[in-house]
Amino acid sequence: MSHPRRTGRRGGGAVAPCALALALTATALVAIVGVSAADEREGSRDAGVVATPAHVMPADLEDVEHMCALLTACERLPLPSGIVPHDFVGCTRTLYAELASPSAVSFSLTLRDCGLRASSCGELRSCALRGAKVDVCTGRGKAGPVDMCDGDGRAITCSGERVSLVRDCPRGGEQCVVREGHAVCALGSCEKETAPACSLSGTRVLECKKGKLLSLDCGAFGLRCTSSADGPKCATQAPACREGATRCDGATAVGCWHGHEVRVDCGARGLACGGSTSTSTSVGACAVIPPPARPAGADAGASPSCDPSAPPRCDGASLRWCAWGQPRSYLCKSVGLQRCVSDDKGARCAP
User: Fold this and answer.
1) Other Cβ atoms within 10 Å of 239 Cβ, number
2) In sequence order, which residues have a C-beta less than 8 Å from that of residue 198 and are 6 or more positions away?
3) Rounded Cα gap, residues 167 and 38, in angstroms
4) 235: enclosing H helix or E strand
5) What ranges in 72-216 are assigned the alpha helix state H?
6) Nearest to 261 by CA among 58, 97, 100, 56
7) Where are the domains of the chain?
8) How far apart are CA 28 and CA 199, in angstroms?
9) What is the pLDDT along the chain (351 residues), one digit of tens a residue?
10) Residues near 245 by Cβ (< 8 Å), separated by ≥ 6?
11) Would 185 disulfide with which of 52, 55, 174, 240, CB 3.0-4.6 Å?
12) How far apart are CA 10 and CA 19, in angstroms?
């Protein structure tokens, strides 16, 4: 699978920093974003990151920077607050590492499709709305989150009179229903309540709950439903493995996710396999390759370096930060944002 890349608006620089600012797993993001199976299929056409069964190619750092510049700057996005860190560097570190981990096989394709491909706040907002009207939540959610089905059958969550979540149920042949105050996408009706189980085709996790057949479409991620001691889960079709096991196969990291192997092609992004130990150079299952040592007597500018603990700073419309000891600069105007600001949310781009 190949994907077009953004061109003409790179922030420039070396590879990014180390420790995660927020422990967000890919499956947690899927749960938070709440996308339907159809949304995932739509995103899989061109998600900006190659993710095939049992194989992950990490995202390009510059694409993650573009995504995080928008996620931390754009207002009134139809996404739950707190989905990513508020500051640009924290967001970039978190998502860059997540997309270089075995769990990336289930990372929300909707977030990838909208975040990694959008070139402006308007594009990001429109993509995440999935066709819902911007003002559909007017007068709703003043006292707290409120769920509803809009006129076209989308499941909408309103908070503070704005859309905070959209699930496009009809796109996946599902219908929106509201049960106990929660809007969900269901495949149809069912009679007897059942615990979650794999479908006969092995492509979905199915559960009959309160008369509605709920599902998680593993096939939308190129995965299969597999049974485990903790219940059915989506997993790859690669060999079984012990949860938490990791090894290196050259520049490829081989990890275990939901009991089946996932190969992370670190070398494709100029990274090394990170091994089983997390260090200051770790990027998910991969690791940054340190620059070659500066020869004695070489010009001081031959191998630029910086202090990884130094806070990011604004330089006009550019945000400068230290990525694993290597200086990096991101131009906010790359995604139509006009300035860099530093406030209580940290350094980030702004309209």
Assistant:
1) 10
2) 204, 205, 206, 225, 226, 227, 232
3) 9
4) strand 233-235
5) 88-98, 109-117, 121-129
6) 56
7) 14-130+247-289+305-351, 186-237
8) 23
9) 333 344 434 333 333 333 222 223 333 333 333 333 343 333 333 333 444 568 899 999 999 999 999 999 998 899 887 778 889 999 999 999 999 999 999 887 667 788 888 999 999 999 999 999 999 999 999 999 999 999 999 999 999 999 999 999 888 778 999 988 899 989 888 988 999 999 998 988 999 988 899 888 888 888 999 988 889 999 999 999 998 889 999 999 999 999 999 999 999 999 999 987 778 889 999 999 887 666 555 555 555 788 888 899 999 999 999 987 789 999 999 999 999 999 887 889 999
10) 255, 256
11) 174
12) 24
- Beta-strand ranges (E) seen in 44-174 are 51-52, 55-56, 146-149, 155-159, 162-167
Q: How far apart are CA 244 and CA 259, in angstroms?
A: 9
Residue length, the chain?
A: 351
Report helix angle 109-117 to 37-44, nearest 10: 40
